Design the sequence.
């Protein structure tokens, strides 16, 4: 086990390095000149040149990357070109908010999705199943930007029950988390249903029925547990896209998380912040997937972690 | 729709004259311009005013600011010496009196007494000297430096008297001292609160509110300063909520969870104007939106005039902007000193076609670029312009890109401009043609200047150069009028419109105003009744 975790950690570091190389390269492709953008529209050539030196952009790309790596191993992500504050500080101020949103959305979305998927499998072919299917398709297809705005109008403006964006109220997390969770619910529900249907065909289920185990117990204790592993995969995988959706949701709701920081820094070509934020995102996805894999090993004794 | 009077030429001249008289004599115009004055006493503790804006604060340092809205927020904390009202007229605020030498090179200010900074240190000549010298410091490379770059030396004569010595006459200096980058900072605050000379993160000024709390990306809270040197505002707390999505800001206002918002979605304006629970204020602004024509490529003035006649600006204002703009009749806005009506380019596609035919340019193919998300409805307006040009036989292809990519194209040197048309805006922080007509001066062409149309007319250059240092107000206004008329006739741009700045606020609140530089003025807002 320790060996396994150790190996995975080494892989994670390599993955992060790979991500940093890709991000660094992609950012070079962004049109526009970061030095000019920072210096401003009316800046003279000398001022832009000064800006370029200050941002370290006058060095060749490889040298810049080297400097970046050197700082990274010391835990320093550089300084924001826009605010001149340490990137770790900028991220640190916003990361908890994104984690909070992602966690709430992920947990509620997955829980609700599993429940709905199990119900749909149990009542396969009946009205409930079809309704849940339709809702799932809608959930996957609706753009979060649109559903977010609709939810604000319904719950904040018309009903007045919840805050319209912002994060200044304990209930502020409800709507953004719900918006994100809708997609999660949809994906998890479909996977759960499919997995459950397969499990419900198994011999041991028939045995349980034959033994007289109550139907509810058969479904939720026996079948669901065994159907759970593929679902866990989906939960882990869609965490990545959840983070991506969080970027949009944070913009719509004004939720002060990392997503907004990333968007703002791309628009203002604040390159150190772009690099730093994407690395942290990659780290989060890696950690979540590691946890999922470890859970696999724990949940199913048949799986050998090698 | 609420309309606010726009300054006519006569009014602008009178205002400038009043300023000039004030400058030369020891009596100065009264402070407390319209909308800036309180008409209610200070309210109870806990009375909170919530303002929703769309941009996060990138810096609290007035010297480093480039975004108007951020400056608008910091203005609650830090004040410049002068203050502009909604007509663009500048009034003294932290200054009681000033005298200008006959050669226009020495300004002596009597500072207001009994003013303290938020940290208790007294506002005095030393603080003003420190602030101005810091703004001038080339190491900080402030873009606001241009406001005061004529100042060669600052000397404190006494605790409350300060002398500015200029290297050349700067007739708009008084107006420049209303500019937000010149906000006076407490020198002692640079050693506290984590501040440093080049990293000023927590501002301490003389403003009616004190820095309370800043939560990155979420909100800024400021608290009323009870030792404020002028009338206390009503609200004891003001919260600036950062909500980048315009539709969310409107929802917030509608849900009663914000008292004032700026920049709602343009298409929401008709509904908001019909809604009794909110007031809509379409603040005139000196921000001009135009399509710069590459004057190096399109040298025939008939073609440029044709392009102007080809576009139906009124239709664009009506249908694309929902009335959120005003047509132009000069290369600067009417609230800007030096404005005089220069003419009109009415929508006349037949005339446009004739002019193009005369110039032998009746099947032009042009490339146009435009930014997205920079100006209100910018992409839509650009598309409309392309449509209008097509109707007179000019085939324009449009490419849009985000702002950083865009300015890289637009600020490039002449040889690197691959497009013939590009859409831009130009605004002046303070209302003077010194800045307003900068894009038309040869020496302000890119790189390093806003003259991206590469318009060059030595006659205009001479007029503008003279006007920059002309002390006589009437002569100066006349020089700018001549220059402006000449520029207008030569049509270096497709002059589109001046964009208004929409402010929407709860009908339960009153005394909300604006300045004509895309800022709201709500310090003295208070509940109705």
Sequence:
């Amino acid at each position: 086990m320790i060996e396994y975790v150790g190996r995975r950690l080494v892989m994670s570091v390599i993955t992060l390095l790979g991500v940093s190389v890709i991000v660094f390269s992609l950012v070079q492709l962004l049109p526009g000149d970061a030095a000019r953008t920072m210096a401003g529209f009316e800046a003279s050539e000398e001022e832009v040149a000064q800006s370029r030196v200050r941002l370290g952009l006058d060095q060749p790309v490889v040298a810049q990357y080297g400097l970046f790596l050197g700082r990274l191993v010391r835990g320093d992500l550089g300084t924001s070109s826009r605010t001149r504050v340490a990137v770790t500080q900028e991220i640190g101020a916003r990361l908890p908010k994104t984690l909070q949103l992602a966690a709430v959305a992920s947990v509620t979305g997955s829980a609700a999705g599993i429940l709905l998927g199990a119900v749909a499998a149990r009542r396969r072919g009946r009205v409930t199943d079809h309704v849940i299917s339709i809702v799932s398709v809608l959930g996957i297809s609706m753009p979060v930007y649109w559903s977010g705005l609709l939810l604000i109008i319904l719950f904040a403006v018309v009903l007045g029950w919840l805050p319209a964006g912002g994060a200044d109220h304990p209930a502020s997390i409800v709507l953004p988390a719900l918006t994100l969770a809708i997609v999660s619910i949809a994906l998890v529900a479909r996977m759960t249903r499919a997995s459950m249907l397969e499990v419900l065909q198994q011999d041991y289920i028939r045995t349980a029925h034959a033994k007289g185990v109550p139907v509810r117990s058969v479904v939720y204790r026996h079948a669901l547990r065994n159907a759970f592993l593929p679902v866990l995969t989906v939960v882990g995988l869609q965490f990545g896209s959840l983070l991506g959706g969080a970027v949009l949701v944070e913009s719509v709701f004004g939720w002060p998380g990392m997503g907004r920081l990333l968007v703002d820094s791309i628009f203002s070509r604040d390159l150190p912040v772009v690099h730093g934020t994407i690395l942290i995102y990659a780290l989060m996805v890696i950690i979540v997937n590691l946890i999922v894999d470890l859970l696999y090993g724990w949940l199913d004794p048949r799986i050998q972690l090698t | 729709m609420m309309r606010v009077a726009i300054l006519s030429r006569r009014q602008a001249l009178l205002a400038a004259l009043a300023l000039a008289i004030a400058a030369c004599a020891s009596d100065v115009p009264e402070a407390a311009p319209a909308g800036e004055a309180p008409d209610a006493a200070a309210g109870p503790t806990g009375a909170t005013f919530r303002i929703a804006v769309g941009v996060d604060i990138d810096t609290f340092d007035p010297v480093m600011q480039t975004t108007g809205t951020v400056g608008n927020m910091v203005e609650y904390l830090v004040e410049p010496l002068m203050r502009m009202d909604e007509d663009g007229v500048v009034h003294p605020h932290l200054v009681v009196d000033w005298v200008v030498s006959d050669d226009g090179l020495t300004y002596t200010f009597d500072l207001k007494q009994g003013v303290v900074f938020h940290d208790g240190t007294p506002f005095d000549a030393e603080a003003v000297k420190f602030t101005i010298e810091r703004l001038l410091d080339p190491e900080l490379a402030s873009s606001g430096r241009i406001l005061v770059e004529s100042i060669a030396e600052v000397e404190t004569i006494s605790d409350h008297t300060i002398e500015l010595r200029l290297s050349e006459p700067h007739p708009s200096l008084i107006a420049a001292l209303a500019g937000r980058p010149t906000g006076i900072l407490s020198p002692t605050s640079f050693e506290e609160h984590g501040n440093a000379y080049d990293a000023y993160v927590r501002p301490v000024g003389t403003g009616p509110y004190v820095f309370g709390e800043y939560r990155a990306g979420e909100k800024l809270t400021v608290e009323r300063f009870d030792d404020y040197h002028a009338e206390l505002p009503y609200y004891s707390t003001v919260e600036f909520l950062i909500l980048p999505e315009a539709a969310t800001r409107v929802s917030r206002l509608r849900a009663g969870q914000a008292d004032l918002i700026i920049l709602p979605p343009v298409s929401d304006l008709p509904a908001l104007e019909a809604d009794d629970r909110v007031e809509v204020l379409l603040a005139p602004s000196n921000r001009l939106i135009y399509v710069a024509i590459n004057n190096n490529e399109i040298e025939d003035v008939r073609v440029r005039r044709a392009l102007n006649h080809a576009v139906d600006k009124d239709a664009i204002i009506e249908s694309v902007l929902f009335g959120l703009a005003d047509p132009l009749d000069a290369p600067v806005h009417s609230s800007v000193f030096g404005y005089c009506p220069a003419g009109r380019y009415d929508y006349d596609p037949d005339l446009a076609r004739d002019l193009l035919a005369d110039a032998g340019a009746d099947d032009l193919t042009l490339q146009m670029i435009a930014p997205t998300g920079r100006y209100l409805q910018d992409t839509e307006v650009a598309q409309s312009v392309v449509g209008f040009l097509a109707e007179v036989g000019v085939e324009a292809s449009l490419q849009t890109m985000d702002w950083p990519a865009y300015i890289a194209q637009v600020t490039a040197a002449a040889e690197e401009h691959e497009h013939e048309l590009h859409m831009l805006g130009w605004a002046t922080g303070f209302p003077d043609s010194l800045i307003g007509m900068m894009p038309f001066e040869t020496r302000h062409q890119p790189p390093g200047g806003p003259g991206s149309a590469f318009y060059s007319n030595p006659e205009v250059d001479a007029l503008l150069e003279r006007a920059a240092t002309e002390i006589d107000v009437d002569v100066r206004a006349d020089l700018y009028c001549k220059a402006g008329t000449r520029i207008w006739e030569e049509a270096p741009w497709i002059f589109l419109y001046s964009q208004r700045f929409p402010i929407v606020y709860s009908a339960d609140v009153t005394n909300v105003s604006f300045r004509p530089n895309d800022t709201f003025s709500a310090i003295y807002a208070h509940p109705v009744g």
